[in-house]
Design goal:
Number of helices: 4
Shape: globular
Helix content: 10-25%
CATH superfamily of one domain: 7,8-Dihydro-6-hydroxymethylpterin-pyrophosphokinase HPPK
Distance between the termini: 26 Å
Strand content: 15-25%
CATH topology of one domain: Alpha-Beta Plaits
Largest sheet: 6 strands, antiparallel
Number of strands: 8
Length: 180
């Protein structure tokens, strides 16, 4: 039995290597997957790192996808993309440390999911201006299923939102909204 189609939002971030090229590789990987459909991509933003000091700035964005996968299947596909692009998820990886790519499942339809491996909505997304700013750009009226607030309202109340700076669209980065 195939999963029903759902709209999901995935946050993307990178602060190691050629960040723009890595973003383009993520888009190509998603477009090659028959169970993933790219609907829209936010602008790309540069942001200061969260976590250990001495890191380079991140590029961040949010993708809107149509998926035909169960939540854990999608999580595993995203992790496979990360692994292919060089993400270190080993036991020595630094929490909130520098990374070549980070793909976080922020929303999966209107579902609230609490599993050992996956929590949706993402547990800290609403606290992070580097997620909320691009998410509010894509889906300003989307309502957080636990907080009952729209993305635009959450983003407007973010501390540090002045540090989220829009960047020119990298080569290979899709348009903001794909035609329906």
């Amino acid at each position: 039995m195939r999963a029903v189609e759902e709209i999901v939002y995935v946050a993307i971030g990178a602060n190691l290597g050629d960040r723009e090229a890595t973003f383009a590789r993520v888009i190509r990987a998603i477009e090659r997957d028959p169970d993933l459909g790219l609907l829209a991509a936010s602008s790309v933003y540069e942001t200061p790192p969260v976590g250990p000091s001495g890191q380079s700035p991140y590029l961040n964005a949010v993708l809107e996808l149509r998926v035909r996968l169960a939540p854990l299947e999608l999580l595993h596909r995203l992790q496979a993309i990360e692994l292919t692009l060089g993400r270190d998820r080993g036991p020595d990886a630094i929490r909130w440390g520098p990374r070549v790519i980070d793909l976080d499942l922020v929303f999966f339809g209107e579902r609230c999911i609490e599993l050992p491996e996956l929590v949706v909505p993402h547990a800290r997304a609403h606290e992070r201006s580097f997620v909320m700013t691009p998410l509010a750009e894509l889906a300003p009226d989307l309502t957080h299923p636990r907080l009952g607030q729209t993305m635009s309202a959450i983003a407007a109340g973010q501390a540090g939102r002045e540090n989220v700076r829009v960047q020119p669209r990298p080569t290979g980065w899709p348009c903001a909204r794909r035609p329906s």
